[in-house]
Amino acid sequence: MPTPVTPNRNYPNVDPANFLDEDVLRLVDAVDMIDLDVAALFTAVAGKAATVHGHAQSDITGLVSDLAGKAAAGHTHALDDLSDVNTSGAASGHFLRLSGSAWISVEFAASMIASGTIDMARLASHLAVSALNAAYAAASHTHAQSNITNLVADLATLTAGIAASLAKAGGTMTGPIDMADQELVRPKVKDYSMTLNARGSISGAQDFNYTAGNFVTATITGATQISITNPPATGSAGAMVMQLTNGGAGAITWPTGTKWAGGIAPSLTVSGVDVLIFTTIDAGTTWRAALSMKDSK
């Protein structure tokens, strides 16, 4: 008869090859063995503390006696509690003075003062008047510019900057002013000019850069494709004047978005000078153009 057992505790187990009456006896033995194990487990657990439990101080060996010898966390000390301080005979106005290895309470005595002043010999050397006078400036004193770090150099730089600046009352500029697309409000302009972008003889793809000057001159020598770059941003109006010589000498492709009167680009002079004006208010998406002068003589 097969006699199988459980893998962990070796309890008698049933086997399909056995008769029922044979396995019943083995199961009875298994129940008895399980009962013994469970009883032993209850006995072992009864001697253990709960997972969450507490202890009185007296349950911890030596804790009560050790704490009894300690001071409270928020305790204070009187001067007399210090081993090297003796306050016997202390009275109001006394101060502590080191005598040998102990501090004692003493009254300030006249012998500590000479001729109504503090005896310098009784002061540490760094407190003597002569030492203080040598180490510190008088309460009211002055400084030379050279005594203030970088002041002379900074003043020289500032003076040079002021000398190079244009006075508020006016003057003559010696260089360009970059307004960086900022407004110049309410100027009264006199004797002004536009920047000329002279391109010479051109053909093929041509970029008329607005920042290079918005009055362009050029002589057309063949088929030409013109574009205008870097116009003012949307919301600001921009204009470019083109003075083209022999504009009819080659086919011209105008900037993308160019709009002409009646939707028809003008015919230019084959041998002569024409003047055209281009304007935009949307950063060059649309250029509204007009032939201002044809065959100007």
Describe the protein.
The protein has 297 residues and is an alpha/beta fold. Among the domains are: 1-46, no CATH class; 196-293. It contains four helices and twelve strands. The strands form three sheets. Strands 6, 7, 8, 9, 10, 11 and 12 form a seven-stranded mixed β-sheet that branches. It has a three-stranded mixed β-sheet with strand order 1-3-2, with no helix packed on it. The protein has a two-stranded antiparallel sheet with strand order 4-5. A hairpin with a 2-residue loop joins strand 4 (113-114) and strand 5 (117-118). The longest helix is centred in the N-terminal third of the chain and has 27 residues, at 20-46. The radius of gyration is 54 Å and the shape is flat. The termini are far apart.
What's the layout of helices and strands?
Elements: H1 20-46, H2 63-68, E1 85-86, E2 95-99, E3 102-106, E4 113-114, E5 117-118, H3 129-135, H4 151-164, E6 196-209, E7 215-229, E8 238-245, E9 252-253, E10 258-259, E11 273-280, E12 287-293
Parallel strand pairs: 1-3, 6-7, 7-8, 7-9, 10-12
Antiparallel strand pairs: 2-3, 4-5, 8-11, 11-12
State the main characteristics.
24% strand; alpha/beta; 4 helices; 297 residues; 3-stranded mixed β-sheet
In short:
With 297 residues, the protein is α/β, with parallel strands linked by helices. 18% of the residues lie in helices and 24% in strands.
For the terminal residues, how far apart are their CA atoms?
133 Å
Mean pLDDT: 86
Provide the gyration radius in Å: 54 Å
Query: Uncertain runs with pLDDT below 50, 5 residues or more?
Result: none
Binned, the helix content reads: 10-25%
Instruction: Look at the helices and sheets and give the structural class.
Output: alpha/beta
The number of helical runs is 4
**Can you summarize the main beta sheet?**
7 strands, mixed
Query: Can you tell me the overall shape?
Result: flat
Helices and strands, in order, run as HHEEEEEHHEEEEEEE
Strand content: 15-25%
Please tally the β strands and state the result. 12
